[in-house]
Amino acid sequence: MKRSYAHDATLAMAPGEDEHAPGAAITTALCGHWQHEPPCPLAPHYTGATRDGDRLRLRILFAAEESDEPEVRRRIEDALSAGTRWRLVEAAPSDVTADERAHADRLATKG
Length: 111
Known about the structure:
Layout: E1 2-12, H1 21-31, E2 45-52, E3 55-65, H2 69-81, E4 87-94, H3 101-108
Antiparallel strand pairs: 1-3, 1-4, 2-3
C-alpha cells in the first residue's frame, strides 16, 4: 500500500531561468521522461515551486511503497544535484502538512 511523503529542496537559480525545469528533472528521474502517460511507474508525485530572489524553494509530494521511499528520495536529490542551470543548496525529508493531506492522499491512490 502506498503512503504519502513530502520532500523539501532549495535551489540557487538565477532569476529568469525556467522554474519548471527542476520539476521536469524530478519527473524524468522518477518516470523515465518528463512527458509520460499516467500512471507514474515508481511514485506519483507533485512538485510545487516558489521563487524568492535567486532561490527556488521546491515542495515535492509523492506516494510510494514504504520500501521504495529511500529510492524515491535518492532519485529526487540526484536529479536536483545534477542540474546545470541551478545548484542544490539543501534538501531534506519533510512531513505532509494538514493542508496537503487531501492532495497527498489522492497521489497515494493513483498507482
